Structure formats: C-alpha cells, structure tokens
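User: Before I run my own analysis I want an independent prediction to cross-check against. Here's the chain; please return only the structure tokens and, at the end, one sentence I can use as a sanity check.
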Amino acid sequence: MTDNETEAWEQVEKTITFSLRVCTDLSEEPELARRVKYTPLELDELNDEFKERLGFLANGFSFPQNQAALFWVACRATW
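Assistant: Structure tokens:
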C-alpha cells in the first residue's frame, strides 16, 4: 500500500463515540417533555481537523425525542 492509500484509509476510518440518553423534562410541554441528550465521548483523542469537520456533532446538545429522525438525517448529511 502506498503512502497516499494509507492516508486515504486513515481519513475514511475516523469514527466518533457518543451516547444518546432519553430523559423527561418536567418543565416542558407534554409533546416536548421527552428529550434526547447527545454527548460526544473521547473527543480529546481526535485531531483538531477532524473535530472541526464534525461541526455541530463536536458538542453536546439535546433535542425533542420526536425529532430523532431529523437528528439521524443531519448526522448522515454531515458525512
């Protein structure tokens, strides 16, 4: 394998680890009360260039559970 091929595979094989937790926010309206909390893990092990490419996925956030499908679409669009 050439150096260029090795470099290309290293860029393709980048992954992130994250957790998704569902919780209930009692202060919200009933349809918005169930929220999903996204938390990226082990970002300190990734280089700055890759973290920059993650965009909104580089930081934790939460969203209404009824928007989970939109979250997955946005994740796929990021890559």
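Sanity check: The beta strands are 17-24, 34-41, 61-64.
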